[in-house]
Amino acid sequence: MKKQIVTYLLVAAFMLFSTVPALAKTTWNANSVWPPGNHQTQALEEFAGLVKDMTNGELEILVSSGGALGFQGPELLVVVRDNIVPVSDMLISGVAGQEDIFGVVTLPFLAHDFEEARLLNEIARPHFDEVAEKWNQKILYISPWPGAGVWTKRKIESIQDMRGLKARTYDKNGALVIEATGGTPYALPFSEVYSSLATGMIDSVVTSTPTAVDANFWEVLDYYQPLNITIATNMVNVNLRAFNRLDEKTQQALVEAGKQMEQIMWDKVAELDREKENISNEKGIETIAVSDELMNALTEITAGIRKEYLDSASPESRKIVDTFLEEVGRK
Predict the structure, then answer these.
(1) CB of 318 within 8 A of CB of 257?
(2) Contact by Cβ (8 Å): 105, 232
(3) What angle do CA 41, 234, 183 make, to 5 degrees?
């Protein structure tokens, strides 16, 4: 009788635990500073899904968006380095204060379109990988933003029209462009942009189309000038020690998922830009065509910004720019 009871209990226990989903052997939190609907957050969530599928649930990445984990910008290299959060996306130029080389991909008017921006990032990537490793992290993928234009309350059709702008900028290079054209840059957290526009503290924003849609710019601004001042990129990094603790098969899956995500994001960026601009137009923002005269004037007036960066930049940064210019035929 006792033997039958023991057998019954063993069978019951097996049936119970066989119906409970197996938990991932490794679970990581991932930080996104962007809102849930932003393409960078959606990419990180898609990446997490790829990783879970490719590892059969052995590695699960839980994404928190909108800076919900309490980390927002320039500190993110430190956050990942110290494994406070094992995975985070970060604006590459946004962490250039820690490593100057990260500013190279947003030198104003260096890359003229998405294909050039992709080439520039490909040339820079080996150098970025080396710097990331120094910070105890590994870059899983790099994802582009549409080009940064100027969103304003008045039309911008010439350099003279940019004088006096009070513009929120997201990095040092954007701020230097606003200063060079006679405006005043403001380094505001994104959460304060809408209220600052509504109260008149600022009257313009340098950013890309997805951010404009995220912030409902049509409620407080009237015009969009697609200047492509910079074409910024995000990188998604993982703490290197956390990565090294994974078995080789899981590491390979993580790297492969990153390659797939990077390809997906670069392939869709132009379409995404059009989609977000169309939404803005439908809501009331008017896109102002940018003349060749204005673009030539902006390229000329910002030449000093590019030169000043390169004069003090590392040999690696100068090599990136020299190689890029040679490949696009502008050397």
Answers:
(1) no
(2) yes
(3) 105
